[in-house]
Amino acid sequence: MTYPNRSTPFPYSLQAMSATARAGVLSTPHGEIPTPVFMPVGTRATVKALAPRDLVELDARIVLANTYHLHLRPGAEIVAEAGGLHSFMQWQRPILTDSGGFQVFSLANRRVVTADGVRFRSHIDGSEHLFTPETVMRIQGQLGADIVMAFDECAPYPVEKEYVRSAAERTHAWAERCLAAHQQPDQALFGIVQGGVWPDLRRWSAEHLAALDLPGYAIGGLSVGEEKALMREALEAVMPHLPTGKPRYLMGVGAPEDLLNGIEVGIDMFDCVLPTRNARNGSLLVSDGRLNIRNGQYARDFAPVEAGCDCYTCRTFMRAYLHHLFRTEELLAYTLATIHNLRFLVRLVEGARAAILQNRYAEYKGAFLDRYHPTDPDARARNHEALRAGRRARDRLIT
Amino acid sequence: MTYPNRSTPFPYSLQAMSATARAGVLSTPHGEIPTPVFMPVGTRATVKALAPRDLVELDARIVLANTYHLHLRPGAEIVAEAGGLHSFMQWQRPILTDSGGFQVFSLANRRVVTADGVRFRSHIDGSEHLFTPETVMRIQGQLGADIVMAFDECAPYPVEKEYVRSAAERTHAWAERCLAAHQQPDQALFGIVQGGVWPDLRRWSAEHLAALDLPGYAIGGLSVGEEKALMREALEAVMPHLPTGKPRYLMGVGAPEDLLNGIEVGIDMFDCVLPTRNARNGSLLVSDGRLNIRNGQYARDFAPVEAGCDCYTCRTFMRAYLHHLFRTEELLAYTLATIHNLRFLVRLVEGARAAILQNRYAEYKGAFLDRYHPTDPDARARNHEALRAGRRARDRLIT
């Protein structure tokens, strides 16, 4: 069941399916990525609070970095002079760079959209910059990730359908310009399907991009505040129209239940800042749901965050110590919490992959969700509200 | 040349001398400490930004923690319930706890000194506490370090000689009460010599404490802003009056040139927050002196912080990457810089020990200082001024 990829040296091999869930391997110049895979986010060429060796230890197979942030600081030229992102951040496994579309459109009153691209002012110093499909491809070429993303517009939510349609049209036109500007055969260019929560727009966007025969496809514009049922509907509208021989990447999704739902419908790749950001706020993932280690009840709790967890944090420290580190705002708190949350998700997805290979994915998902109580809807709504509010705030851009 | 220690199971073995510089081994319930030794400071049961495995990797042989800070948060009872500091912070090598004397006297207008002890208000929540020699010994017993310090008064600088004398008298009386209250044979109680910059007071204080036959002696109240010549004079007044068969610990000293000077006159142990605090400000120790990695000149510098340095940071990353992490305030910056500065000092002292064993210490010191340009006196004065000012500020207590 291997589908050789005609357009790049990034063959994706589909190894097994369990209903519509897929297990595969994506090959890149920096090694193979077993899928499904969760990709930790290292916006500014560092997964916050972790050293690369921590990421190898918890077995992250690929990390993200961000074009917008790295363009502003330190600048893509410096990264290129350093030998590219792998050398700069000393991460030898694959890297994916997001195109910066999400970030520049988030700048609201600091940006002007034209047919050519987006002119924006830096959130750091107000300096003016222009992102076009061509400049974004050039910057990503300098950064040197294995996988680069097309420049796209992620429409906000909620918003008029007509706006979502025009954003998707822009995204399609820009994807074609990205493909035309794409010159580095050692980088795979992924397209991004948009279309908001409208199944017809999603289908149309998927078909349009599939025709470009790109080596992979992302689904953007979900997990931006819409209800879970709408996300599911949009996903189901997209999936039949993406080629089965290419990896599918659901952008910005990282809650455990969302990962399992995404894998179920055939998603191969995920990324999200929430597991790492939540970790820095003391919110830790455990099999029952989440716990906030800052709560007073953990002050005298001498058990590990989760018994049986194989991460460095749980193998080594007790909850009372993490509680103390968080209460005293010690830097080690953020490292230990991040290690745990990332390992939790990486292991969850490793387990999903093993279950797919044994054709018992539904059972795996059911067993996990029987025990796991996701954040309640109110907390989720507050979370999304905070994210939306944050988009408008300068400091939230730095994620 | 072994001097069996009569009062505790903490034998100190003097292995070699090179002029007055000493190489030895101090045995503790958590293993042997080759001396001279630099002890990283982990005030609140964590060396800021590092995990214990980082400390093992850079070969820290013993770390400090602080009685005042741990008494306030999380409380010594919780540490005791966790099995003591070694278990709480998961550090299997020796630990030394400072008595909190320095901190409570720094509280200035938040404390009242009586013959019994010091009544003070917490810098965190204003709650009232009483430290006496007896309570400090009880708290340190609960914390469970290998080496505990007598409750002392570190007189400020500059101050009237008469005040320094009365502070030393209090320190002597309290040392006797600490010894009387000392009950745990697995903890070595060190006395603290005071006396400011007055050689006669220093001699008197050393003689007084030596008569108590404690398993080790610290020299406090130096490196608090006095000129280097005065520190040297005070040290030279003390050394002949301390027993040669016991370790000598110079408190709060950590600049490379001060370490080498201290070792030269026969000091065995050092601690200081500056190498770690400076690291978090981007000030990195190199053989030539110091560099501030935040400076623009390092933005395109693709060399390691110091070529040939065996620390994880220098083995792995380039200056341009550290510069980027500092400029973007990424947490990894603090970890990588701290690893480097601590490894630099640990290696400096390892080299001093090897040189003493070969009876060529003067040569070792000379070769290092020929190349190393310590911070200029102006910068040093500003540094001390900042430290003094900081003592009065709440947030500086958290060090």
Describe it.
Two copies of one chain form a homodimer. By secondary structure, chain A is of the alpha/beta class. Chain A has two domains: 2-271, TIM Barrel, CATH 3.20.20; 279-379, no CATH class. Chain A has 16 helices and 17 strands. The first copy, chain A, has helices at residues 52-57, 67-72, 76-81, 85-89, 101-105, 133-143, 161-181, 199-210, 228-238, 256-265, 274-280, 312-316, 319-327, 331-357, 361-371, 377-392; strands at residues 2-3, 12-18, 21-28, 31-35, 37-39, 63-66, 95-98, 111-113, 118-121, 128-131, 147-149, 188-193, 216-219, 248-250, 269-271, 283-286, 289-292. In chain A, strand 3 and strand 4 (31-35) form a beta hairpin. In chain A, helix 11 (274-280) runs antiparallel to helix 14 (331-357). The longest helix of chain A has 27 residues, at 331-357. Chain A starts with a strand and ends in a 7-residue tail after the last helix. The A-B interface holds A 44-46, 48-53, 73-74, 78, 81-83, 88-90, 299-300, 302, 312, 316-318, 320-321, 323-325, 327-328, 330-332, 334-336, 398 and B 44-46, 48-53, 73-74, 78, 81-83, 88-90, 299-300, 302, 312, 316-318, 320-321, 323-325, 327-328, 330-332, 334-336, 398.
Indicate the low-confidence ranges of chain A by residue numbers: 1-6, 390-399
- The gross shape of chain A turns out to be globular
At the first level of CATH, the class of the largest domain in chain A is Alpha Beta
> Using DSSP, what is the number of strands of chain A?
17
Biggest interface pair, residues each?
A-B, 39 and 39 residues
Q: Rounded to an integer, what's the Rg of chain A over CA atoms?
A: 20 Å
